[in-house]
């Protein structure tokens, strides 16, 4: 394999390879470039990040992207949920064929995930590993790894977003559906009905690794609800429109139609914890009853906490390593009122250390969503040049890939207010004080949309493709060529 | 040291050593023998067990007793809570000077427990290790070890029982008080007040190792309540009666009198979870909301569960490895009505696998307490000859020391119904169908009481010491020589 690549390279010659690379990058920037005027270092940071993501990502459906890209030995080159929650979103809207390959990687390791599910006593279905290269679970400490069953729902979410953005039915039929069904089975098996609550999921860890093995992690339950409901939708859709393929999949995984009914029922009855007194979503059943971490008396040098305190000390306090429910507020921003988001955001902001580099970009996005632009800017600035400036003092171990893609998300989903929920494409751009102008591009259903924002105006331009309906702030817009609106405050 | 012992032995000669040993054992049986008529194998079993406990236990305050005694390499020779909850109770009432030495061992490792407390972020106090030889925590898997903070309260309970049975003030002043105060500090620091509940203790594991890192483990909270309250009592008692010694201890550990106030307050307000609907004590805050283990479809060869299921699978179900709250029902049998004990016992019996050899003897004792004699007998018979008959197929790894002492407890506290709470000494003997007669001896405050039970009668005989008040069934008795009563049904 290595020999073949080398032989081909020698045959092509340096000049041709260089030409191809230049062409490749040119095409990438044409459909993906982000411009920021008014901060040259930031402009450099975001392009540096996008370039690293692009070059570090496996595009052959057999390899994926390590947490450190190709730049260091941190995390032993393992792949995490970082792929589905941070990397894939960037690719879906800039270079969707790469997103597809990353999802095909999950399909190609589905048998290992089936084996893992059996090890975890699930008779059917597939449980993806928390960290892996070849598909086998490579975690040593299960409370902060295998217990993160949300990985299954994260993959389902990425499939849903990819499908919505591309309408790639071939992928859905060939790969996506089988992954969705097999992973949905795990949640159906894992959960159970509790009187007065609904469908409950016990003994899991959410994204926040400072809280482990809890019941009804709100993020996990909401993601599982969406997952189960989408799996049922896809089953019915394929059955109706591609029945032969449906029968093939059904036979292959021995799917019982009753299972689909149970997925829908579990989704409809999913318990999402809510605290009536504080009017916020508790991170899990027991989170709010714990003592709040004594942040005031924690010296700066004791962060990240996991290097200075025994896990038991951390687990018994209200303290979050990273965005957990706040991540759900972003991924499912259409399901909550602004007031609710504000209450939740403010609660979790107080107890979150951002000891994980996956956190600030998410807080930045949600801060934008609720109109906290200055705060969003501060969070965002912790992400964009993290490795260029070695903010965490550990770039020697490799770049922070998820954070790099997160900085793209921070601009596009954060300041740009971009969201896509099927037919609904939303933009709500805001501009930070320090910028004069910024622009980004979104690929969606064969269209290429350029969003250009300056201090006064937002311009949406359809660069490629036919008319498409989008929502700009609260206005429904038929985008055919170019439209211009005043920037919201 | 080894040389010295050998030299002394050679000097004494075989015959003298033999004579001494015979004398030693004769004295032991005089004050400790248990007789069972009607089952010779059982008679052999109980004496075998008591002999093993006696010979395996360190009596120099520097050594203790390994989980496998001196007979095997299982558990690497480590000492556990087995000492305080199973071994010491037998010694308190048969050979109290050994109980004292075992408690002095804890005193001699108190500095290590102080170090451990600092590692676990407690600024003051001492946290005893879950498994150790020299006093350092030797556990590799903290959810089922260090998280078992109840070890502190278990040691306090043993000190209390030893003191009540001996009134050994010298021990209390020299060793006990300091241990009690230092260990109490941990619970006061660990817990916090929650509105509507009281003093809550989060992020611990109770005795049941099939449920890990929970909030408000009922056993832990009840034991901590008793511990804090006894520590405060001892502080006040010593201050009043031995003020010099009190000042010495106070200075040494920098005790603030306000701390004692806080111990009392925490004890008075300790939250003991109770389920109003089932009218039982939930094992912890989340136990009852979990799915019940599917015992019906678990093949026999899958026990013990821990060898066949991933911990996450076990943790997310209602399933107990061993007596947890049921142990509290025995240790604090004076605090609950018979009806309450029946409800609790019946609930936990259904979800307990007894995969730990520490479990059946406790269930046997509580079954006796609630009048389930046949059931008690079945549980008891799993303990008495466990190693002689190799019930668990693992006696090659060494004897089960706690279970051996537990078989003594099964007779004395179980069928004999013996309890001691300070001045209150209780006997409620019952006899299993298969026995014709049994007897045991209790040492309490310089008295030696023999309890003899046959199919019709109970005889209490004061073999040594002056008049003492005891309770036989519901009757207060002044025991001076011998009394006889009819056996209760």
Give a structural overview.
The structure is a homodimer of 489-residue chains. By secondary structure, chain A is α+β, with helices and mostly antiparallel strands. Chain A has a domain of 289 residues: Glycosyltransferase, CATH 1.50.10.10. Chain A is built from 17 helices and 13 strands. Chain A has a 5-stranded antiparallel sheet with strand order 1-8-9-10-13. The longest helix of chain A has 24 residues. Chain A is globular, with a radius of gyration of 22 Å. The model of chain A has no long low-confidence stretch (mean pLDDT 97). Chains A, B: It is an enzyme of class 2 (transferase). Chains A, B: Keywords: Glycosyltransferase, Transferase.
Largest sheet of chain A: 5 strands, antiparallel
* Assembly of the depicted chains: homodimer
What's the architecture of the domain at 68-356 in chain A, going by CATH? Alpha/alpha barrel
Q: Which chain pair has the greatest contact?
A: A-B, 30 and 30 residues
**CATH fold title of the domain at 68-356 in chain A:** Glycosyltransferase
Distance separating the two termini of chain A: 55 Å
- The level 1 CATH classification of the domain at 68-356 in chain A is Mainly Alpha
Approximate strand percentage of chain A: 5-15%
- How large is the count of helical segments of chain A? 17
Arrangement of strands in the largest sheet of chain A: 1-8-9-10-13
Give start-end ranges of low-pLDDT stretches of chain A.
Answer: none
| Cα gyration radius of chain A (Å) | 22 Å
Number of strands of chain A: 13
SSE pattern of chain A, N- to C-terminal: HHEHHHHHHEEHHHEHEHHHHHEEEEEEEE
Secondary-structure content class of chain A: alpha+beta
What portion of residues of chain A is helical? 40-55%
The mean pLDDT of chain A is 97
Protein name (chains A, B): Maltose phosphorylase / Trehalose phosphorylase
EC number (chains A, B): 2.4.1.64, 2.4.1.8
Domain Glycoside hydrolase family 65 central catalytic (chains A, B): 47-408
Domain Glycoside hydrolase family 65 C-terminal (chains A, B): 419-479
């Amino acid at each position: 394999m290595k020999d073949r690549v080398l032989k081909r390279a020698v045959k092509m010659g340096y000049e041709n390879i260089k030409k191809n690379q230049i062409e490749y990058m040119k095409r990438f920037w044409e459909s993906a470039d982000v411009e920021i005027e008014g901060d040259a270092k930031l402009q450099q940071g975001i392009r540096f990040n996008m370039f690293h993501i692009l070059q570090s990502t496996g595009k052959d459906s057999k390899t994926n992207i390590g947490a450190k890209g190709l730049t260091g030995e941190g995390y032993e080159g393992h792949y995490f949920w970082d792929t589905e929650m941070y990397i894939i979103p960037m690719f879906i809207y800039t270079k969707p064929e790469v997103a597809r390959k990353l999802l095909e990687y999950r399909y190609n390791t589905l048998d290992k995930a089936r084996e893992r599910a059996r090890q975890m006593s699930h008779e059917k279905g597939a449980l993806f590993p928390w960290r892996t290269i070849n598909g086998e679970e490579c975690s040593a400490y299960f409370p902060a790894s295998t217990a993160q069953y949300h990985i299954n729902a994260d993959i389902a979410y990425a499939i849903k977003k990819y499908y919505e953005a591309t309408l790639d039915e071939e992928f859905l039929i060939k790969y996506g559906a089988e992954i969705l069904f097999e992973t949905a089975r795990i949640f159906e098996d894992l959960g159970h009905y509790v009187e007065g609550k609904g469908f409950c999921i016990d003994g899991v860890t959410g994204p926040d690794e400072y809280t482990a093995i809890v019941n009804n992690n709100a993020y996990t339950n909401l993601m599982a609800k969406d997952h189960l409901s989408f799996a049922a939708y896809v089953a019915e859709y394929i059955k109706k429109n591609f029945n032969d393929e449906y029968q093939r999949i059904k036979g292959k995984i021995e799917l019982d139609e009753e299972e689909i009914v149970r997925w829908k029922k579990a989704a409809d009855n999913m318990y999402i914890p809510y605290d009536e007194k504080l009017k916020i979503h508790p991170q899990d059943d027991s989170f709010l009853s714990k003592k709040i971490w004594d942040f005031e008396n924690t010296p700066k040098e004791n962060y990240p906490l996991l290097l200075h305190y025994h896990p038991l000390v951390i687990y018994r306090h209200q303290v979050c390593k990273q965005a957990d429910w706040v991540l759900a507020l972003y991924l499912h921003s259409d399901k909550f009122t602004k007031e609710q988001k504000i209450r939740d955001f403010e609660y979790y902001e107080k107890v979150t250390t951002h000891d994980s580099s996956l956190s600030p970009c998410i807080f930045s996005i949600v801060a934008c969503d609720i109109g906290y632009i200055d705060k969003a800017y501060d969070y965002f600035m912790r992400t964009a040049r993290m490795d260029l400036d070695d903010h965490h003092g550990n770039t020697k171990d490799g770049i922070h890939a998820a954070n790099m893609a997160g900085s793209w998300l921070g601009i596009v989903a954060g300041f740009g207010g971009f969201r896509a929920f099927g037919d609904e494409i939303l933009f709500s751009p805001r501009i930070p004080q320090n910028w004069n102008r910024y622009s980004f591009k979104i690929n969606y259903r064969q269209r290429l949309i350029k969003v250009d924002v300056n201090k006064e105006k937002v311009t949406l331009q359809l660069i490629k493709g036919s008319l498409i309906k989008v929502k700009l702030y609260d206005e429904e817009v038929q985008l055919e060529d170019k439209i211009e609106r005043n920037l919201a405050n």
